[in-house]
Amino acid sequence: MHSRTHAGRAGRPRSATADAAILAATRAALVDLGWSKLTLGDVASRAGVAKTTLYRRWAGKNELVVDAVAELFDELRLPDRGTLAADIEGVVFQFAAILARPEAKSGLMAVLAESTRDDALRERIRTSIVDRQKRLVLEGRARAQERGELPPETDPGEAARTADLIFDVVAGAVVHRELVSAEPVDEEWVHSFTRILLLGLTAA
Fold this sequence. Notes:
By secondary structure, the protein is mostly helical. It folds into 2 domains: about 15-60, Orthogonal Bundle (Arc Repressor Mutant, subunit A); about 70-200, Tetracycline Repressor, domain 2, CATH 1.10.357.10. It contains 10 helices and no strands. The radius of gyration is 19 Å and the shape is elongated.
């Protein structure tokens, strides 16, 4: 899991076990209760900790829920399957599998909906989920360049913009397919998507 910083007061050392229980309880509460009815008291009860424990770690519900969702996407890993196409397909299948989980669906949809009314929440989503998972694009591109599948980048600014665009295309397509259109992210779709994406990458 990647490190995260939480707003909280100084005190006893953090417990990784307690953190994991709290984040899992948050995701379960989102599935059962939804965003509007979820309270830190519900989460504390499910996790078997005092509510003050949550407040020592998170400033409020927004921060807690985003971290609970972010933990799911921290499971993503870039596989080394020998080619850029195979690596992309591996990540897409992983991403779709996470999105198919009830806690991921409930959590992500809840924070995205709430973020339309809360700029601070939108920023936390960007820093805790989006920016952190862009590592997959950077790692994949670097590996493809080492293999000679993609040309090296000469303009750092253009390289950063391209990485952002690749992430937006992949994440947007899979989220739409899994959560909006509710169509299967099966082998046929993933192969077609990867082929189209590679056409753009190799032509750039």
